[in-house]
Amino acid sequence: MEMLQMLQDAGRGLFGPAWLTVWTLVKIMAIVLPVMGAVAYLTLAERKVIGYMQIRIGPNRVGYFGLLQPIADAVKLLFKEIIVPTGSSKFLFVLAPIMALAPALAAWAVIPFSNGVMLTDINAGLLYLLAMTSLGVYGIIIAGWASNSKYAFLGAVRSAAQIVSYEIAMGFALVCVLMASQSMNLGDIVRGQHGSFGMLNWYAFPLFPMFLVYLISGVAETNRAPFDMAEGESEIVAGFHVEYSGMAFALFFLAEYANMILISFLTSIMFLGGWLSPVPFLPDSFIWLLGKVSFILLLFLWFRATFPRYRYDQLMRLGWKVFIPLTIIWVVVVAVWMQTPFWLW
Amino acid sequence: MVLLFSLLPYPLSEILKGLLMINFETILFYVFAALTVFAALRVITARNPVHAVLFLVLAFISSSGIWILLEAEFLAISLVLVYVGAVMVLFLFVVMMLDINMVRLREGLMRWLPFGAVLAGLMAFEMAWVLSSSRTFAGKAAIKHGANYSNTKELGRLIYTDYVFPFEIAAVILLVAMVAAIALTSRRRKDAKSQAIDEQISVKKADRVRLVKMPPEIHARVNADRTAEVAR
Known about the structure:
The structure holds two protein chains of two kinds. By secondary structure, chain A is mainly alpha-helical. Chain A is 67% helix and 0% strand. In chain A, helix 2 packs across helix 11, helix 4 packs antiparallel against helix 5 and helix 7 packs antiparallel against helix 9. The two termini of chain A are 32 Å apart. By secondary structure, chain B is an all-alpha fold. Chain B has twelve helices and no strands. Chain B is elongated. At the A-B interface, helix 5, helix 6, helix 7 and helix 13 of A face helix 4, helix 5 and helix 8 of B.
């Protein structure tokens, strides 16, 4: 803390009033670079975990235990040619991967990593997150349309319908959280789960159905297996990014994994008490948050290794006929429950 | 930055400083306003309907920037969330699926131009009238609030206390419109085929799979090969 203060003073002396901008940029880098590193090693973790689940070893040639594999992959993708298909809309074709990645990174602005440690502490944080995660679909739609390819277009249309449907269930699940915490500030939501009973104070207990709905909708929102209809390699080749190669493809890849990590952070913050310790006698720390996030990421990989892909009509049925009614009912249940003395959270 | 400024001649450095510090919000306002006007113009001039929809998205996002400058963050974020995140996605969905004939789309401009011009003039006049009338905004600067002011909370309080009946009535009207739209468009064809999802889900292994016990096929196979050899 003292070192931070000294750094602040030195910076203010050097940059004057522009220091606020410089300091914010430094903070943004301090968030984005670890996220990018986490994305790189999440791809390795995915290949390793799924490998072990299928009694294989996974990548183990590049570096000890395959640890340099993500770097080798990144270098390979950087040097590959980006092929722009004929008859495509060139500007939109290049814009699409950027549109996919930008909201995935912008959402990190309001994530609280520990008590008071966040880029911006805004009151409408939850709303901002919903808005940002709802923008990610544009990258996919634009990519599918600009590619001038049937497979890509089918992937884009599937993805648009899927994301719009699951967003509603996700939004209602978060409405329950904001009713329970009576705040849209993410820091306050975590602090609202603080109590003398450790993990029993987390919102995952009173809102357990919402926790499940949010987690499953999160898998659907990030287009991960078993809801990866937008890619569906056995049906529509690779879906929306079939025409992309090299770094343009890598940006879609980055966006998907950055979204996975984001959803894991959000689930931990909304339902699993964020940085709070699960037992009262241990101190709260950022480590707990990392542990919870890693567990949910493991669930993402586990789902992919376990479940076969949903059929499209089943996917829509689950979203509209199961999740949305369930969440609406639970909003009413929580509203009534909170008026009774049995609401302990 | 300050070092840089002090190198400049005196008035220029002062002007730059002034631009940077005092009027940063004003600069942002003009940037967003120019972007909104540009995007709105492109919506009606873009040749490709999909491009037009994307420019409409840009117009929404830049106007939500203006709303944030007015400290109306709830409205700004819900504009992005509802219009950009949901409504425009469905718009794009439909526009991308349509088979639009460009030539047919472009004819009849001269026929409809006078009507459109009258309509646009009327709207411009109304807006100018409302904005310049002394009862509404003229001469009033936007009130600045402190950092603790939550626009979301204030709006919520107003909607659920003073304006609860208009709000509820609007909600009911929307619900009626939705039910009516579904009732009008959802026509069930007689020969339509559908899946009984409940039956599909409640199916058991025993209903579909029958395990048959039978002896291994090795002998039969060997015998068959032998007869084939003899025949040859």
